[in-house]
């Protein structure tokens, strides 16, 4: 594999293991890491308490943050691996909030117009890794990490997100470089063999990019 800088991104529902895999791959390959900074997010706790009130604020915050992160990634001379993409907000989270009546049509249209403007100025990741997981797996991993603001996440919210993730991933994989990992069958935290399987799959894909 040539020493060429890339933008690698990991996508997946809440609790699918994005941050964990991002850290594992960054360590293995020596890549720079771009994590989703939830602790400094001024809206995340309020959003889970009152989604309808704070949905637009939260999504605009994410949109701005991820756009600026992508600009920094593309200006970097090293490969960067990113935890969550700008596309997930636009194609999964915001439409889901709108469909559930938690974001008004006026706000959703404004958000979508903002995304389209910013999206015209960025390139997609060179490699995207999608973590597919069932609802029981997501709930288990959300409970294990114990973030207080996630205690109020509803099962129907996770289910709707999963359905949108599957639809988006199916369409995305037709035109872009994507690896799909079934997290129900993988424990890359505690099982070194599973970690090796994931890395082998990524190696094969990376070699095909050049």
Second CATH tier, the architecture: 3-Layer(aba) Sandwich
CATH topology: Rossmann fold
**Sheet having the most strands:** 5 strands, parallel
Estimate the strand proportion.
5-15%
Strand order of the largest sheet: 2-3-1-4-5
Tally of DSSP helical segments: 8
Oligomer: single chain
Distance between the termini: 7 Å
The number of distinct structural domains comes to 1
| Assigned CATH superfamily | P-loop containing nucleotide triphosphate hydrolases
Kindly state the mean pLDDT as a whole number? 89
Helix and strand pattern? EHEHHEHHEHHEH
Report on this model:
This protein is an alpha/beta fold and 210 residues long. The chain has one domain: Rossmann fold (3-Layer(aba) Sandwich). The chain is 56% helix and 11% strand. It has 8 helices and 5 strands, in the order E-H-E-H-H-E-H-H-E-H-H-E-H. It has helices spanning 18-29, 44-49, 51-75, 86-99, 105-119, 135-145, 155-172, 192-208; strands at 7-12, 32-34, 80-83, 127-132, 178-182. The protein has a 5-stranded parallel beta sheet, sandwiched between helices. The chain is globular, with a radius of gyration of 17 Å.
């Amino acid at each position: 594999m040539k020493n060429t800088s890339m933008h690698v991104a990991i996508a997946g529902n809440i609790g699918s293991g994005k941050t964990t895999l991002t850290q594992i791959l960054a360590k293995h390959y020596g890549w720079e890491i771009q994590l989703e900074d939830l602790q400094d997010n001024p809206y995340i706790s309020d959003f889970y308490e009152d989604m309808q009130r704070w949905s637009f604020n939260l999504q605009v915050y994410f949109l701005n943050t991820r756009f600026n992160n992508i600009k920094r990634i593309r200006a970097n001379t090293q490969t960067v691996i990113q935890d969550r993409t700008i596309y997930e907000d636009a194609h999964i989270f915001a439409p889901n909030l709108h469909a559930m009546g938690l974001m008004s049509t006026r706000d959703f249209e404004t958000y979508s117009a903002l995304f389209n403007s910013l999206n015209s100025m960025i390139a997609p990741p060179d490699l995207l890794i999608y973590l597919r997981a069932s609802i029981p797996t997501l709930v288990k991993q959300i409970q294990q990490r114990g973030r207080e603001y996630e205690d109020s996440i509803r099962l129907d919210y996770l289910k709707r997100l999963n359905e949108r993730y599957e639809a988006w991933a199916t369409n995305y994989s037709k035109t872009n470089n994507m690896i799909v990992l079934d997290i129900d069958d993988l424990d890359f935290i505690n099982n070194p063999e599973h970690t090796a399987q994931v890395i082998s799959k990524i190696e094969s894909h990376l070699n095909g990019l050049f």
